[in-house]
Amino acid sequence: MKKNTLPDIKTQFSEWYLEVIAAAELSDQAPVRGCMVIRPYGYAIWEQIQKNLDERIKAQGYQNAAFPLLIPQSFINKEKEHVEGFAPEIAVVTHAGGDQLEEPLVIRPTSETMIHHMFSKWVHSWRDLPLKLNQWCSVVRWEKRSRPFLRTTEFWWHECHAAHATYEQAKQDIEQAHFGVYKKVLEDILAIPVISGKKTQSEMFAGATATYTHEAIMQDGKALQSATSHLLAPAFAEQFGISFQDETGTQAYPTLSSWGATTRLIGALIMVHGDQKGLILPPRIAPIQVMIVPIAKAETKEAVMQACENIHEQLKNKDIRVHIHNDDQSTPGAKFYYTELRGIPLRIEIGEKEARAQQATLANRVDGSKNVIAMSEITMAVQNKLEEIQQQLFDRALAMQQAYITDEDKLSEFGPRIDGSSGVAKTGWCGSKECEAQTKQYKMTIRCTLESQKHAHCCVCGKPSITDCIMAKSY
Amino acid sequence: MKKNTLPDIKTQFSEWYLEVIAAAELSDQAPVRGCMVIRPYGYAIWEQIQKNLDERIKAQGYQNAAFPLLIPQSFINKEKEHVEGFAPEIAVVTHAGGDQLEEPLVIRPTSETMIHHMFSKWVHSWRDLPLKLNQWCSVVRWEKRSRPFLRTTEFWWHECHAAHATYEQAKQDIEQAHFGVYKKVLEDILAIPVISGKKTQSEMFAGATATYTHEAIMQDGKALQSATSHLLAPAFAEQFGISFQDETGTQAYPTLSSWGATTRLIGALIMVHGDQKGLILPPRIAPIQVMIVPIAKAETKEAVMQACENIHEQLKNKDIRVHIHNDDQSTPGAKFYYTELRGIPLRIEIGEKEARAQQATLANRVDGSKNVIAMSEITMAVQNKLEEIQQQLFDRALAMQQAYITDEDKLSEFGPRIDGSSGVAKTGWCGSKECEAQTKQYKMTIRCTLESQKHAHCCVCGKPSITDCIMAKSY
Predict the structure, then answer these.
(1) What DSSP letter does each residue of A46-74 carry, written as one string?
(2) How far is Cα B62 from Cα B207, in angstroms, rounded to an integer?
(3) For A50-62, how does the pLDDT look when each residue is reduced to its tens digit (9 = 90+)?
(4) To probe the interface with B, which of A28, A29, A69 has the most B CB atoms within 10 Å?
(5) Which of A88, A351, B103, B222 is at a distance of 20 to 30 A from B25, taking alpha carbons?
(6) Do residues B37 and A65 make contact, with C-beta atoms less than 8 angstroms apart?
(7) Rounded to two decimals, what is the model's pTM?
(8) Taking CB atoms and an 8 Å limit, are B31 and A117 in contact across chains?
(9) Domains plus CATH for chain A?
(10) Residue from the list A43, A66, A75 with its beta carbon closest to the beta carbon of B38
């Protein structure tokens, strides 16, 4: 039996993270700096995330399309704040087809500029609005320091882009996206509780007038920005010449918006739910929800395998994603290890005794508890157990998140403490960039501002607070 | 009512093709030379193709994964024939993150080199084989002359890559892919009959020892290579250092293979099935299989819409992809035009008379025939009609293909004739490059060699033929 040799999750979280990814074969380092290969098991998780997002994106009236990965450099330069934000991270194609290009092309770091150019060809009248498109693709942003899934030079994502007749319609659509799609997928499917709010001016998307974020708290107390949605500055529509005739016959600029979520979500799943034995995947997202492990000697093998296949058939008929670990070369212990490391939420053990008694043992990956179930009740028992595990993971993650959050009054008090260990401060802020900049000395940032307000004073300058906010270290 | 103003499909096929794409909003020209944007309706067709391929690819034991789009230039240079084939088409990234790169990076024209590099890290023992991976992505090959879907600088595809312990296993797997996956999807789903065979040495994939192809015949008599599968030269495994210990403990090189199909399939659908009114999509691939068109005056609108929604509900419950064209601004004529142009295979018309009589009129897009059906039998009638249209399209395409193919003996006779108009010659070939090169003077190539042999002599030199082959002009 292969022993679990993962680094200690409490004291070596960062090493644990990298080792889980390698051992569970989620990704591998590519031969290009900062790039990763997503291996089949990691990609299967991404496909589940895609499926959940894609159906909700379409339900909100967005249609999928595909835009070129190469963007003329002049496009990127059109919107002043956009270019300032992205120029340092850009990869440039200077030669193609054996010749030097007249104008260099940039590999998309995001597709606003390309899509806005096309919008200008497609939008003429109020009848063309809203125009709502989505793209699944990869983008490239040159990273000095990479970490698999969390920060890679190339990453995979969906990017939604829309043009709306009015600011109010754009705002309503982007809030529906942020809360109706992202929050639901994060909390209900990935079992990751989030703190939702807005980015400050200095943390906004380059060229946005408002950036909504969901911040998830990892087991080490750091925040991870898990999905963002943007209302874009009027400059985009003006620079790209997107205008339309409204119902009164007047020429007007639409309000543009965009929202995106990336393969970083796989990193969030690992860091929120994993434990010393490896990954733990919430049932609604797990590519394999149930692993059936036969435990048989040569003379009992037939009866045991028969029982396994019966269960497999029954569960498959109920659309449960189930596999039998029937590799003859592995011991039962190795199969348990394999199943645990990969975070498969439910294991069914069938030995000779179980096969004879028409029973099966269900083992819960989260708490290790076991139940013996009559074969006749297996489908219902598995369905219930998967729902139970889903809820259990959310509750556990919420308790973990809540334990990290403390109400704070003074940066000079909580700053050193959080810097020295970990934590998430809920506090007041006067809204000034100067006070925001003070958080940096403790390696923190304002992760988001909050809707509700409870703190009267700015935690830095002590002047009246204009908004509560969350401060934390982050990935 | 908007009039159909498509160019004449018989005399202006090429203009007709471009205009159908524009009018049906399948794709648009991108602001980067040779690149296209795939618009929502075109992308919805691609999603249907993806779904059909993806489930069959997985059923053959391939797993999806994602590899970087940037490849070190030295990788491309490793395999001699591969670099000769792809060097002239490559786009090169020389700068990134504000600096010049030490080694230029190439945007993948295909991923053999990147994936083989990773295989060398993952393959050690016969237990690791076969290793079978698939990737959905876009690739870039610099094109001097582009045509939407058929030949674009960036195109979208799937690419399967595998390593097998033996040549025989590789051959068996690639033949299963080529005939079990591609031929089935082409003929059974896309309703496109194909001529299947192998590419000659000079038309093979750069670095292959055998390339299998399916050639489809377009309405203008030109061939379109519609999917290819390759057994790769041993040099790939050697150059990338992929070796394994076989069951006897001996170090061996695996046989590598790859297979791919692209967004070109959308071009094939247009050119095989379309007619003077626009696109015609086979029901099994159509994003919208049935369009319900209400025909009502203000006073009858409620009853008509109620009938439409009843049918919509019933068909949706049977997983039929159905829409109601309920845009109040359009006349019934405009709705018919819209539905025909987009190639929606079945139209259901509901007027006041139909609503009152509890009937509906089904209109077949292929032959324009109409049937009046009792509302109570609508689901079954629609299912049958869709199957009928699927078969009708295949039969029609097969008859068209067969009418173009003629058995020929002498290139000097059929060459000028095909060059001057169109046609597909089935003939004999001695196997020499010199004779093959003679086809060029008539703008033809050997599209593929065939399994069965009927022609005794080479159509060029008159010496004994070693294989029958198909010669035609092509896209």
Answers:
(1) HHHHHHHHHHHHHHTT-EE-B--SEEEHH
(2) 22
(3) 999 999 999 999 9
(4) A69
(5) B222
(6) yes
(7) 0.97
(8) yes
(9) 13-273 (3.30.930.10), 290-388 (3.40.50.800), 404-472 (3.30.110.30)
(10) A66
